[in-house]
Design brief:
232 residues; alpha/beta; Rossmann fold; two-stranded antiparallel ribbon; 9 strands; 29% helix; globular
Length: 232
């Protein structure tokens, strides 16, 4: 992304923190509920959240699972507050995918993407998916929270003239590969208004995607016999 886009995203991150302040950490948390389910089958020892706001969800994971928890957030305001509230969680100010290099060589059992893909410039999407892939353990999970729409769309962003909103299938950057598959999808409306709920532009989803090993994703087969090996 260019510097203008990054500045706009940082400003929007602070704005998001302010607009949603009263609900942060106090409302229903379907992403954490999914982690509670996963932990019973695949114990969670480490979590990275990209777009973590104050790190409130990471703190819940640290307490519930005894997990090593790290987070990156573009809003300096949210990160500063989180560092005061949750000193045992590693929180960093930064932009994905560029600053994910801080954890290069580290693997996590769960990587969460918290409502950021819809604003991410499309030229950064491939780098994001590759960076996340490099950070997830085999058998681990990617949890995406984002808008979902039956077909790919883009539109102006109401909170910034610099940014656009992109809506499609938020887990597609991983599930195209045989080494990832969708294990859970929870679609829910953004609005409580019944009429608004009929509009798919307002739908959001929490997707859980499992990462397989290369051996699991690409099972080996016996190579075809060469001409010299065949019996006629």
């Amino acid at each position: 992304m260019d510097s203008e886009q990054e500045q706009a995203l940082a400003a929007d991150g602070d704005g998001y923190h302010q607009r949603n302040y009263s609900g942060i950490g106090t409302i229903a948390d379907p992403a954490f509920e999914q982690m509670e389910i996963l932990d019973k089958i695949y114990p969670i020892g480490s979590v990275l959240e990209i777009g973590c706001t104050t790190g409130f969800r990471l703190e819940k994971a640290r307490k519930a699972f005894g997990a090593r928890c790290s987070g990156i957030e573009i809003s300096p305001t949210a990160v500063y507050e989180g560092q005061q509230l949750y000193p045992e969680v590693e929180l960093r100010v930064g932009a994905a995918p560029r600053d994910l290099g801080h954890w290069a060589g580290t693997k996590f059992d769960v990587v969460i993407l918290g409502h950021l893909q819809y604003l991410l410039p499309r030229e950064d999407l491939f780098q994001l998916s590759a960076s996340v892939d490099s950070l997830v353990n085999d058998g681990g999970h990617v949890i995406t929270m984002d808008f979902i729409y039956p077909s790919a769309t883009r539109s102006p962003y109401s909170h910034s003239s610099t940014l656009e909103v992109f809506k499609d299938n938020p887990s597609a950057p991983w599930t195209w590969s045989p080494t990832y598959f969708l294990v859970s999808r929870q679609v829910y409306p953004q609005s409580a208004d019944l009429v608004d709920q009929m509009d798919p532009k307002a739908w959001q989803t929490v997707d859980v995607v499992r990462k397989l090993s290369i051996e699991q994703g690409y099972p080996s087969t016996e190579p075809p016999a060469s001409v010299h090996d065949r019996t006629f």
